[in-house]
Design brief:
Helix content: 40-55%
Oligomer: single chain
Strand content: 15-25%
Radius of gyration: 22 Å
Number of helices: 13
Largest sheet: 8 strands, mixed
Number of strands: 12
Shape: globular
Length: about 300
């Protein structure tokens, strides 16, 4: 929203932002289902230093992320204290653009263990940035920038390609699980891109599992259905990631043919100390058993949780 003239006054802009946040927080009925959304609003003013519309939008974007950090459902003004974060974001964006073709983004592997047998069943692929100056950078530092700048597909496919080439030589019983960003799921050609990767690397489709976050399904369920069906027609398995954190978990299980449910780590890490989390995990386990869908639990790091 661009405000001109008297509407640019701080008080007026704040009132407009507060109204937006309030209106958007009201439940919306869609085909008989109540949808609950939250808004985070960032506000920036065109400074005397110029910079044009791109600089203005970037400042507003930084302020929006500041609003999200504060818990969301609020607005925040950009101030000079955020300037360092803006510069950091610009540096990251430039680094990502240069780093993808240079092969700086590489796969790391997290073990997937069968708790009944204790045997290794496969690995989940995690992206890391081997930065030439800063060393290894965790995904929480760069994924949101890659998504916001449209670089996430190239970055993700580069890491997955490397993983498939490496995993091709592993024992046949080991599978590879890869994450798909919500931004990637909006791509109508996503299934074809994975098929091309499998052909290029020679990796068996039946050993590949693609993880889709539950929140990403909410925006365009019809497109997600088409993509999932296309992938499954190629013998690729599909997992529902972060199960239990969205609004329509059961509806998604009914609408899409998932091969695995992943229980979100936020439930798993509190199993021992929180009776509600324990009850929720037990309920999800019962649901998975009833639907004959295998379960994975994220964040099992101690023997107590494992048992």
């Amino acid at each position: 929203i661009l405000l001109l003239g008297s509407a640019c006054e701080r008080e007026t802009a704040s009132e407009i932002a507060a109204t937006l946040v309030d209106r958007l927080s009201q439940p919306i009925e869609i085909d008989g289902v109540l949808a609950h959304i939250r808004a985070s609003v960032g506000i920036a003013t065109a400074g005397a230093d110029g910079g044009g519309i791109d600089a203005l939008m970037r400042r507003a974007d930084i302020a929006m992320y500041e609003a999200k950090k504060g818990g969301g459902e609020r607005f925040a003004w950009f101030d000079n204290g955020m300037e360092s974060e803006l510069r950091r974001r610009n540096v990251l964006e430039a680094g990502i653009r240069a780093g993808i073709p240079r092969g700086e983004f590489v796969p790391y592997y997290e073990q997937q263990i069968d708790l009944l047998t204790g045997k290794l069943r496969g690995f989940e692929v995690l992206a890391r940035w081997n930065h030439p100056d800063e060393g290894v950078i965790e995904p929480c530092e760069f994924i949101h920038v890659a998504e916001a700048t449209g670089l996430i597909s190239d970055l993700s496919m580069s890491v997955i390609r490397q993983a498939l080439f490496e995993a091709k030589a592993w024992p046949e019983g080991l599978s590879i699980a890869v994450n798909v960003s919500p931004v990637q799921l909006k791509d109508p050609l996503l299934a074809q891109r994975f098929v091309q990767l499998l052909i290029e690397t020679g990796f068996p489709a039946q050993r590949l599992e693609i993880e889709i976050t539950e929140s990403s399904l909410f925006e365009n369920l019809d497109l997600a259905k088409t993509t999932v069906e296309s992938l499954k027609n190629q013998d690729i398995r599909i997992a529902l990631d972060d199960f239990g954190t969205g609004y329509s978990s059961l509806a998604h299980l009914q609408a899409l043919p998932f091969d695995r449910i992943k229980i979100d780590h936020s439930f798993v890490r509190l199993l021992v100390s929180d009776k509600q989390c324990d009850a929720l995990v037990q309920a999800i386990a019962t649901l998975g058993k009833g639907l004959s869908i295998p379960l994975s639990a994220e964040g099992i790091e101690t023997a107590t949780i494992q048992s």
